[in-house]
Amino acid sequence: MTRMDDTDREIIGLLRTDARLPVAALAARLRIARGTVQNRLRRLEEEGVIVGYTVRLRPDSEPHRIRAWMSIAVEGNAAPEVIRLLRGEPAVDALHTTNGRWDILAELRADSLEAFDRALGRIRLTPGIANTETSLLLSTYKA
Hints:
This protein has helices at about 5-15, 25-30, 35-45, 80-85, 115-125; strands spanning about 65-75, 90-95, 105-110, 130-135. By secondary structure, it is α+β, with helices and mostly antiparallel strands. Strands 2-3-1-4 form a four-stranded antiparallel sheet, with helices on one face. A hairpin with a 6-residue loop joins strand 2 (about 90-95) and strand 3. Helix 2 (about 25-30) crosses helix 3.
């Protein structure tokens, strides 16, 4: 496991807010040398702490997109295999393991109700899934 200090966490925090911040801007905001930021980013990437950079969209930027949470109960110890299989499902945006009644929470996205219905059908046929419960996301108030 990688050991991170406060500077590493500050770099990651700034990148979470804006993954496109140039190294020079990160260095200026943190009041450290540009080379220090570059070395830390390289180390965090090589050690697998940072696995990629992404774009976050405002929820209302895709107003016709269907979004939902699916709670998934798995049979026995099937969670790793279910996760592996669901990673290949185009409608699955993210997967989260949880404790409590449900084993996995899946973030789902689809372009239409028909596409969403087809995705639900495919997901529910995944070997190892015992039960699901899906909630459509209607509005988002804080992003």
